[in-house]
Each structure stands twice: as C-alpha cells, then as structure tokens.
Design goal:
The chain is an alpha+beta fold. The chain is built from 4 helices and 6 strands; from the N terminus they run ααββαββββα.
Amino acid sequence: MIPDHPRKQRLAAFIRAVWDDGDADAVDAYLAPAYTIHHDPGDAWDGQVLDVAGFKDRLHQSRAAFPDQKFDVQAMFADGDHVVMTWLWAATHAGDLPGFPATGATIRMSGATVYGFDSEDRLTGHWQISDRLGVFQQLMAAR
C-alpha cells in the first residue's frame, strides 16, 4: 500500500524505519522535540512527554523482547494535523519480560493509533488503543 497523502507517507516511513527496523538514528528525522503519549493503556510510558533521547530509550526497551517485530498497516486516514493508522503486529518473543522468560512464540496484536504532526510534519505524539490483554493471554499460553 502506497499512502496517498504526504503525512500518511511520512508515517508509513517512520513505522518501517523506526518500529519495524529498529533504527534509533531515524527517530531524529521524524520526531518533534517533545512527543506526548496522550493515551496508551498498558504502555509503561502512558501519559508521558518524551524528548528524542527518551523516545529512543522507549524504542530500545520496547523492541528488546520482540526484536523482529513488524507492523502490517491495515488502513490510514488523514484529518488535519492527525493520521489514524489501524494495524496488525507480530513478533517473536525472543527476550525476557517481567514474569515471562523468552518463549520463542510468535505473538500477535492489533490496534489503532492516532498520530499528531506539527507544522514541519514531525510527529508530536499519539493516542492508542491495542489488544494488550490478547498479548498477555498469548504469553501465558506460551509458558
């Protein structure tokens, strides 16, 4: 899918480079100086405002247990300064999580994220809902 809107294209490139490939250096090109996690229940950074270094730390910590993670973008919708992305996610549980030693199991999740952009098309934050309960259930079953 090739997005038909400049901000959708930018978001797709960000997801590929940063979250799929784990390229922390690419964060500099996409993020505003302050990135707010407005709503992301179950995420350790929910409600926080991160600078670029803090976001890179979040990236490293988030990918540690799932280094091969990939997002399969299902749809994107642009409205003003926001792009909504619905997605499927899959990864191998290759690193330990608190209470869950690495299992080698493939874990799947779905969600929807609203990303905000500033006037320079840098990401300013997100509001997200995802199936973290499903992830927990899969981790429990894989023990």
